[in-house]
Amino acid sequence: MPWWGIAIILFSAFVLFALLHSLAKNKSPFKRALLSMSAGLLTLLAVNLTAGFTNVSIPVSLLSLLTSAVGGVPGVTLLLFLNLFF
Q1: Alpha carbons 10 and 50: distance in angstroms, whole number
Q2: Domain limits for position 12
């Protein structure tokens, strides 16, 4: 996938999160959207950093990065469940 396709996906997810936060009448929807996306990426990082203790890791690829950025913490949880079953 070209880099501009990835940028479009991330920008669309950011706008969607900002729209959802503005519909929920939050004070700063863009800040909340950025925090939602970064929370997913930080959760993916935390899972991989604790892999030595838990023996659970998620391979870092384009798909896992996009899933964790767009899905946030539930996206990383989904990746963990898929890793458990497959």
Answers
A1: 26
A2: 3-85
Query: Using CA atoms, how far apart are residues 44 and 38, in angstroms rounded to an integer?
Result: 10
Domains held by the chain: number: 1
Q: Which pLDDT tens digits describe the chain residue by residue (86 residues)?
A: 788 888 898 898 888 888 888 888 878 888 888 888 899 999 999 999 999 999 999 999 989 999 999 889 999 999 999 998 98
Contact 33, 10 (CB under 8 A): no
The pTM is what? 0.81
